[in-house]
Automatic annotation (TrEMBL):
Entry keyword set: Repeat, Transferase
Cellular component aspect of the GO annotation: mitochondrion
Domain Rhodanese: 25-144, 174-239
Protein's organism: Oryzias javanicus
Protein name: Rhodanese domain-containing protein
InterPro entries on file: Rhodanese-like_dom, Rhodanese-like_dom_sf, TST/MPST-like
Pfam name, any one: Rhodanese
Length: 287
C-alpha cells in the first residue's frame, strides 16, 4: 500500500476508512492525530485525543516534537530527536504515515507535520483530506481506545531544500530572487489584526504575496483541486513558470502551515518553506 501513495500528499477519508476496516494499520501504515491550537483556545489536544480519535491512531504532540532550546515557536527538532520521537510511535522508514487534526478548517496543524516528515526525508506521508471533520461527517467511527504501537527504527535525514533559514530570507530582501507567499489571514498580513503573540509586531515580509490558507480549501475543509489552486496562485501574482525561482512560503507559525500539500497538488511545481512570521519578526526585531 505504501508504494502506491509515495508521492500523494492527500488521501481521502474513504481510503483511510477502508484501510482501517481491512486492518492494514500497523508497521506499514500509521495514523497520527497531530492536533494543535493556539494557547488562547485553552484546548488540551492530548486529552481530546484520549476521548475521541480515529481508530488505531496515535498522538503526535507538536510542542514536544520541536526544538525546545529555541526562543522561537516550533522550530524543527534535531534529526535524532525526530527519529526517536516518531520511532516511539511505531513509525519506520518504510511506514506510510497519514496525519490529520480535529480543526473545523479540515486541516490546521496536520500539514505542518506532513512537512516535517518530508523535511526529514520521509516521502511516505499524506494528509487526511478534510481531517476529522470529514471523517465524522461521512459517518466513520471514532474511539477512545488506544494501544501503544511497537517501537520501530526511524532514521531522519534533513533535506535542506525544504527549508529556508532566517539568513536566506534576509538575503532575499536584497536580491528578490524568490517570491514569498504569506498564508496568514489578510487581517494579520495587513496589520489590522493582532498577532497571537503579544511581543510580535503585526505586518508582513517586504514584497510578500498574501494567499490566506482558508482560500485554498472548499467549505467542507478539503483542499481545492490542482486547477483551482493553480489559478489562485497565478491570480495572486505567483510566477509558476519557475523563472522567478521556487516560491518560498512564509506563514504565521510553523505549527499551522495549512498550505503545505499544495506543493504537490500544483503539478510540476515545488515550494520551499521560510521561517514563520513570528520567528522572522521576533528575530528581526532583535537584529
Amino acid at each position: 500500500m505504501a508504494a502506491q501513495v509515495q508521492t500523494r500528499a492527500l488521501v481521502s477519508v474513504q481510503w483511510l476508512a477502508d484501510a482501517v476496516k481491512n486492518k492494514l494499520v500497523g508497521p506499514k501504515l500509521r495514523i497520527l492525530d497531530t492536533s494543535w491550537y493556539l494557547p488562547s483556545t485553552k484546548r488540551v489536544t492530548r486529552d481530546e485525543f484520549s476521548q475521541k480519535h480515529i481508530p488505531e491512531a496515535s498522538f503526535l504532540d507538536i510542542d514536544e516534537c520541536s526544538d525546545s532550546t529555541s526562543p522561537y515557536d516550533h522550530m524543527l527538532p534535531t534529526s535524532s530527536h525526530f527519529s526517536k520521537y516518531v520511532g516511539d510511535l511505531g513509525i519506520g522508514n518504510d511506514t506510510h504515515v497519514v496525519v490529520y487534526d480535529t480543526s473545523d478548517f479540515g486541516a490546521y496543524s496536520a500539514p505542518r507535520v506532513w512537512w516535517m516528515f518530508r523535511a526529514f526525508g520521509h516521502g511516505l506521508v499524506s494528509v487526511l483530506d478534510g481531517g476529522m471533520k470529514n471523517w465524522v461527517a461521512e459517518g466513520h467511527p471514532v474511539t477512545s481506545e488506544y494501544s501503544k504501537p511497537e517501537r520501530q527504527e526511524f532514521r531522519a535525514t534533513l533535506n535542506a531544500s525544504w527549508v529556508k533559514r532566517f539568513e536566506d530570507v534576509m538575503e532575499n530582501i536584497r536580491t528578490k530572487e524568490v517570491q514569498v507567499v504569506d498564508t496568514r489571514v489578510s487581517g494579520r498580513f495587513n496589520g489590522t489584526e493582532p498577532e497571537p503573540r503579544e511581543d510580535i509586531l503585526p505586518g508582513h515580509f517586504p514584497g510578500a504575496i498574501n494567499i490566506p490558507f482558508t482560500s485554498l480549501r472548499d467549505d467542507s475543509g478539503k483542499l481545492l483541486g490542482p486547477e483551482l489552486l493553480t489559478k489562485i496562485f497565478k491570480d495572486a501574482g505567483v510566477d509558476l513558470s519557475g523563472r522567478s525561482g521556487s516560491p518560498a512560503v512564509l506563514v504565521s507559525r510553523r505549527a499551522t502551515s495549512s498550505w503545505r500539500p499544495t506543493r504537490l497538488a500544483i503539478p510540476g511545481f515545488v515550494f520551499t518553506t521560510a521561517p514563520g512570521w513570528s520567528g522572522f519578526r521576533g528575530r528581526h526585531q532583535n537584529t
